[in-house]
Each structure stands twice: as structure tokens, then as C-alpha cells.
Design brief:
rod-shaped; 8-stranded mixed sheet; single chain
């Protein structure tokens, strides 16, 4: 299992699947140097592999008469000379083609649609250059053999042609590997178009099967046919042919399968590692899209998914600022917002003399004062697990126990009320507020129209809390609760309150017994000792 740290390492230091390709933010100059070194190294390596295949097939596998002295002399000089010449021509030719189709990289701009296609087809174009040079060798050396020793012409043609197939297959994979950073820049703002490359995943698998398995087996069959035609091949010679061709088949098959598997695994691994980070909660993830096949579409699809998750999270955060994170959470995880009876505690806080403040102060100062006031309200309500349901001008309604359930909603509201009384007195002396707290059964749910909904609570406790806040404006502590809320709270919180008068508040027919914080507490909810 990939750890969080390992996934970050792969994404940050090996975004293209290998440290050889460098970081995603490397400079254009460093990218050019790295690309030139890798392309030259891979070109030399793949051609050496092809030459080795030709040597093994010519010497140990395909039967035929020994080469004449003249032909041996020509090949002893001509083969190394052509190899060096073709290598130089191939490197120069490939470099010019690569620079031509990636000129937009040096111009430090985004690739156009046409340049994206040309960049992703560049491995195929460079492989064609290799094929052309090998085909020239096949035709040239076969023609010389036909003139000097015709009986060996087929043998020479087959060996060089097999070497060409192996070289081109390995070259394609390595070139595609080296060009991943360039492909990533080309696809930085777009997904790979459909039918973009000559080789998709299916065609690639078939091609590399043909190069790594079918070609050696075809060579073995051809060797058998030539041995039957020759009629003089000994058992020892036949054994050597089979062993040599078996080594070539195993070696080339292993190399091509390894390179092909790496080309498939690298994009999949980048997506897997990014998914690990997504699972850890890290949404600010974007992986480079460096593959032009269906795997590139997978990488681009992941980036679109991650962008959607980031957008959803941002909407959730912004939405939560307006309706409260509790409402957002309940709306996304349950269907209980339609309306239900709940036992909740209600806290209503209202500024004293807000009309006078608005008349005496500039609007900017009034807004700043209200924001400081509401910041304290939100802070203390959230600390106790409550939900600020409304900001009504200079007043605020907070609910405890809906939409998220609380074990002791009344105790939480009473603690929040005492904390508000203390903090508003200490931190906002230029403005005072009345705070009312009560508890009871309400209907909690969404109201409005399908085009615009609002979560709220409706019931007598809401009206009662608002009336208690009006009464609280004339008390020293600026805080009044109903005694029923104190009785519903836990004993620890209840010990901080004392009963008061019975008052019939405006809009209610039944009297309410009031409760106020004990003077010994100083309105501080963080004091837990009971008064003596």
C-alpha cells in the first residue's frame, strides 16, 4: 500500500514516472538538455541492440554457406562505417524533427491543437526515421550480397530486417518515455483527442507482441525451412540455431514487455498515487497528462474529477458560510430537512440601541461594529456545537440541537449565553446586547420554494427567546434564561443559574419563570465549581 508520503514523493519528484525525466516545473533549457541526452543515449543503445540481434541471427541461427572472402572484407569495413554514419545522421535528423515539432516549448506558450497532435505523434515520426535508416541498410547490403554471393542474399536481408523490427519497437517505447515532459506541456490544458495516435493501447500490444514474440518465432520457422532446403544441417548446428534464437526471443520479449509494461504502469500509478492523496483529504492535486493513448484520457479524467471535487468543496464552504456547515452536512447526508419536531435550545441575542448607533456613526463603522459583534456570537455558538440560523439586522438567532443533534442542547445554549455575556462586556464595551435563552419543542426544517429554501425552526421557544432578550437588556448581566431550560440542562450547568420572577412575556399566555446567572460565576462558563 502506498503511504501518503510516498504518493507525494512520486507526484512531486517523479511526476512522469521516473527521476530521469525531472520535475514538472523544470526550465525549458533544462528540459532541452535532458531530452537531448536521453534521445542520444537511447538512439545509440537501441541501434546496438539491433546490431547484436543481426549478429546473432547471421552467425548462429540462419543456415547458409559461409560468406565469401570479398563479402567478409566488405562487411568488416562497411557495417561499422554505415553504423556510425547512420547513427550520426539519425541523431541529427531526429533532433531537427524534434525541434521543429516542439518549437512552441521554446516560445514558452501553450500548444495549439495542431501542435498537440504533432507532439504526441513525435515518437512515431522519430521511429520512422530509425526504420528508414535500417531499411536503407537492408537494401544496400542485400544488393551487394546479390552481386557477390546471391545464395546468401535472403539470409542477409532477413537478419537486417529482424534487427530493424526490434530496434524500432524498442526505440518507439524509449522515445515515448523521453518525451513525456513535452507531452505533458502539450496536454496541460486539454485532454488527448480521440484517434490521436497511430498506436493506441490495443495496437501497441499487438505491435510489441509481433516484435518480441512473433518475429523470433518466424525466424525460427525460417531457419527450419532453410535447413530443410539445405539438407546438410547437422543436429549440432540445429541445436545451436534453436538455442541462439531462443535467447534472442527471451531477451527481446522480456525487454519489450518490460518497456511496454512501464509505459502502461506509469500513467496508472500517477492516478493511483493521486487518488491516495485525495483519500487523505488533499484535493489540490493535478497530475501531468503525458500519455496520448487511452491512459492519457484516464489522467485527464482524474484531473477533471479532482477539479470537480475542489469546486464542490468550495461551494460547500461558501454555502456553509451562509446557511451553516451543519445544514450543509445534513442536506448532503440525510433527508431529514423536510420538517420534523425536535427538542432544541434557542439563544437570541439583540444589540441595545442599534438605531441610535446607526444614526450617530458612519455606515462603515456600524458595519464594522456589527461584524465584531457577530464574530463573537458565531465563535461562542460554534464552540458549544450550536448553529447560527439567522442574522437579522442587529440580532442573531442560534439553535442548539438542530439540524445536528446534541446530547445536552439546553446546557450548551446556557453556557454559550454566559460566555457571550462575558465576552461582549469585555470586548465590545461600546455596545451592549440582551441575550435570551430557552428550550422546548419546535418544528425544524426547510421552508420556502423549490427555487429558494431556508432552514429554520418554528415554534414557541423561538418567540420566547426573543422576548427574553428584550427583558435582558434591562438587567446587569444582560442575560436571562427560562427556568425550564435550566431544568433541562445537566446538573453541572444548572448549578450556575438561580431562579427569578415569573413573568408573562409579550405574545405568550403562560407565564415564564426566569433564571439568571449566579453573581459568583461572573458570567464565566469556564468556571465549573458550584457556588457555596
Amino acid at each position: 500500500m502506498t503511504s501518503h508520503g510516498d504518493a507525494e514523493l512520486v507526484l512531486n519528484r517523479r511526476p512522469f514516472g521516473s527521476w530521469l525525466l525531472g520535475p514538472a516545473d523544470q526550465s525549458t533549457r533544462m528540459l532541452r538538455i535532458r531530452l537531448r541526452v536521453l534521445m542520444t543515449t537511447f538512439s545509440i543503445g537501441t541501434n546496438l541492440i539491433g546490431a547484436a540481434v543481426v549478429f546473432v541471427l547471421a552467425v548462429f541461427v540462419l543456415p547458409g554457406p559461409p560468406l565469401s572472402d570479398e563479402l567478409q572484407h566488405i562487411e568488416a569495413i562497411g557495417v561499422p562505417a554505415y553504423f556510425l554514419l547512420a547513427l550520426i545522421v539519425g541523431v541529427v535528423w531526429s533532433s531537427r524533427v524534434a525541434l521543429r515539432y516542439t518549437a512552441w516549448v521554446d516560445e514558452d506558450r501553450a500548444a495549439t491543437r495542431k501542435e498537440q497532435i504533432s507532439t504526441l505523434r513525435l515518437p512515431l515520426r522519430l521511429t520512422v526515421i530509425e526504420a528508414v535508416l535500417w531499411m536503407v541498410a537492408t537494401i544496400a547490403f542485400t544488393a551487394v550480397t546479390v552481386v557477390i554471393q546471391p545464395e546468401n542474399a535472403l539470409r542477409i536481408a532477413v537478419t537486417i530486417f529482424d534487427g530493424m523490427i526490434v530496434t524500432c519497437a524498442v526505440s518507439y517505447l524509449l522515445t515515448e518515455f523521453a518525451l513525456r515532459p513535452v507531452a505533458a506541456r502539450a496536454l496541460a490544458d486539454a485532454a488527448p483527442p480521440r484517434r490521436l495516435l497511430a498506436f493506441g493501447l490495443k495496437a501497441r500490444v499487438v505491435l510489441f507482441w509481433a516484435a518480441g514474440s512473433a518475429t523470433p518465432v518466424a525466424g525460427l520457422m525460417l531457419a527450419a525451412i532453410l535447413a530443410l532446403i539445405d539438407g546438410t544441417v547437422s543436429a549440432t548446428r540445429l541445436s545451436v540455431m534453436i538455442l541462439a534464437l531462443g535467447i534472442v526471443a527471451i531477451g527481446m520479449g522480456w525487454l519489450l514487455i518490460l518497456l511496454s509494461a512501464r509505459s502502461v504502469v506509469a500513467p496508472v500509478r500517477s492516478v493511483r498515487n493521486a487518488l491516495t492523496l485525495i483519500g487523505e483529504g488533499e484535493l489540490n492535486i493535478r497530475i501531468p497528462v503525458f500519455d496520448g493513448t487511452e491512459l492519457g484520457s484516464l489522467q485527464a479524467g482524474f484531473n477533471r474529477m479532482a477539479a470537480g471535487l475542489r469546486e464542490r468543496e468550495r461551494i460547500r464552504e461558501v454555502f456553509g458560510k451562509y446557511v451553516g456547515p451543519e445544514v450543509v452536512r445534513e442536506a448532503l447526508t440525510s433527508d431529514r430537512l423536510g420538517g420534523e419536531e425536535r427538542f432544541v435550545a434557542v439563544l437570541f441575542v439583540d444589540l441595545v440601541g442599534s438605531t441610535k448607533l446607526a444614526a450617530e456613526r458612519p455606515p462603515v463603522e456600524v458595519v464594522q461594529l456589527l461584524n465584531r459583534f457577530f464574530a463573537i456570537v458565531v465563535d461562542e455558538v460554534a464552540r458549544e456545537g450550536g448553529f447560527v440560523n439567522k442574522f437579522a439586522g442587529d440580532a442573531s438567532l442560534a439553535i442548539f440541537g438542530a439540524p445536528a443533534e446534541l446530547i445536552d442542547p439546553a446546557g450548551a445554549a446556557l453556557r454559550a449565553g454566559r460566555a457571550l455575556s462575558r465576552r461582549l462586556s469585555a470586548e465590545l464595551p461600546e455596545a451592549t446586547a440582551g441575550i435570551g435563552v430557552t428550550a422546548g419543542i419546535v418544528v425544524a426544517g426547510t421552508v420556502g420554494d423549490v427555487r429558494r429554501l431556508e432552514y429554520t425552526v418554528i415554534g414557541d421557544p423561538v418567540n420566547e427567546a426573543a422576548r427574553l432578550s428584550e427583558l435582558a437588556k434591562g438587567t446587569p448581566s444582560r442575560l436571562i434564561a427560562s427556568m425550564s431550560a435550566v431544568e433541562d440542562a445537566g446538573p453541572t450547568e444548572g448549578a450556575h443559574w438561580q431562579p427569578g420572577d415569573r413573568v408573562t412575556v409579550r405574545g405568550r399566555s403562560e407565564p415564564t419563570q426566569l433564571a439568571s446567572p449566579r453573581p459568583a460565576d461572573g458570567g464565566d462558563p469556564r468556571r465549573t465549581a458550584s457556588p457555596s
